[in-house]
Every structure is written in structure tokens, then in C-alpha cells.
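Hello,

I think I submitted the PBG job twice by accident. Can you confirm which output corresponds to this input? Input:
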Amino acid sequence: MFPKQRLRRLRRSENIRKMVQETHLSLDDLVYPVFVGEGLSEPQVIESMPGIRRIPPQMVHDEMQEIRADGISAVMLFGIPKVKDGLGSAAYDQDGVVQNAIRETRRSTPDMVIMADVCMCQYTDTGHCGIYKKGAVDNDTTIQYLGEIATSYAKAGVDVVSPSAMMDGQVAAIREHLDKGGYTNVAIMAHSAKHHSSLYAPFRDAADCAPKQGDRSEYQVSYANPRQAMMEVALDIEEGVDIVMIKPAMTYLDLVAESRRRFDIPIAAYSVSGEYALVHAAHAQGMIDKNAVMLEVLGSIKRAGADIIITYFAREVSGLLR
Ligand code: PBG
Ligand code: ZN
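Support: Only one job matched these inputs. Its output is below.
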């Protein structure tokens, strides 16, 4: 104890500090979300997400090369279709916006890790993450559709499918569909503990997927229920998931840390649109230093135990990490 032990000894110079640095943020850990809008002729800015745009399908090729040139090796694709209907049919159309973007990405950047969101809320006329039956989202019908969507992405050449619908049994159903189709090598990164969060608001502008009526509390986990969240993670592992995800990130770091303690499977954390918007809004007001805060936020997610971070900051932070 003091005066013998002095922790300041190892903080005396930058190079000593670097030697004892315990956790590291790397570009290799980051996944950049990309929004593709069917039928767009120009990119569309998203007011609530400064710097993020919906891009037209014909821009996917060049955009992917630019993202790759920034040193980012993984993207998460989201599609905004032209047509929505009761069965979300554009979601599993082999000529759909995501399926085409997967093929185009594979052509333009063959070594890009292609991940794609598997859900129905952009595609259903209700804006809910599943098929509506008798006034509610029908779980067991929906998971069959999620299996169809995943298989259509696999056909297009996806590496990782990422179900975000929070339906029970979605991982098992998707695994079964993929394996039956011969896509045993396509991995599943599930939004395992996806919370009913107000931090998704900017994303709903970006993806046009807000529920027309009600909310998602019947399928997403309450922020007050950490034990349920851990059950979600455990069940996904039993169902054969390859990577689990905690979402959002910043306000759920306790669950990232708890998952790291309990499980050996890779863990992803999704730093969601609201987390991005908070930092940008405060920066625009001159209240914080965006770059420093961005590094601290992403660093804290790593420190909590995440292997992978899905983040809208990926491109902005790339220059700082290289
Ligand atoms: C919908 C979906 C949402 C997000 C990803 N997929 C929003 C929601 O559940 O309403 C949020 C991502 C973000 O806010 O960045 N399946
Ligand atoms: Zn959804």
C-alpha cells in the first residue's frame, strides 16, 4: 500500500501507458450498417443521423469499395423496399433490394464480410416485425418467413444473417431453413437480447419501419429485465446461433459484461442510431469533442467484453484507428 504502491508510475509517459493498455479498439471489430433504398435515384440524407444516407441500389458497388478503402471489412445491410404488404413479400423476393445489394457487394468487394438484417418491419404494411394475425404478431408463422428471408439472402451470397425480429425460436427456424437449403456455412448473428428501446427512433426514419399501431413491447425485452435478457442469450445458443448480440450497447453494458462472464461464444453489441444521434447532437451544439467521445464510447463497449461492434461511427472512427 501507499507509499510503496503508486499506480502513477505506469502513467508517466505515453509509451509506458501504451504498454499497459488493457483493451484495444480495432477496425477489425467494426461493422458498418448500410441502408439501401429501392427505386431511389439519389442518396437521401437522414435528418436524425448526420452523415448517414440511404443509398440507391446502383450506388452499392462504389459505396462498398469506399467503405472497404476506409479499412472496414464488414457491413450490415438494411433494405427499404418500394412496396409493403400484409405478408412482407418484398423481404423474401429473390430480386429484392437486399438480395440485389448482397450480390452487388460480393461483385464489388469480394472480401467484404456481408451481413444482412433479417426482419419484416420494413416490409409489412403494419410496420411490425412479423406477420399480423388476429390483432397480434403471430410468432410461429413469422419464424417460417424469417427462414425464407434468410435462405433468399444465402442464395444471393450473404456470409452472416442477422435476425432482429425478437420472435421466439427464430434462430432454430432459420438454422433449419438454411441447412435444408444446403447453406450450412452461412452464420447466424442474432439480435439475442434486443431491448424495447427509445434509442431506435432515428433508425425508424432511416429504414421507414415504425409500427403503424402499438409498439414492439410484445416482442422486445424491457430494459428493466436483465434476467430475461440472459435467458434470450442462453436460448439462442441452445438453438445454434454463431454470434449473440446485445442491443443497444451503451445503456446495456452490464449485459455485455455478464454475457462475457457466462458464455464463450462471440458477442456483438449494436451501438444504435440513438447513441449515434446523441453524440452528434451534443457535438453540433459545441458541448463535446465528438472524436474523443466516439473513441470513449466504442472503447467502453470493448472493455465490457464485446468482440464485435455494429456502429454508425465505423467510417468516422476509421481515420483515428489506422
Ligand atoms: C427493426 C430494427 C430496429 C433496429 C434494427 N432493426 C428498430 C426497431 O426494432 O424498431 C434499430 C437499429 C438502430 O436504432 O440503429 N427490426
Ligand atoms: Zn423488425
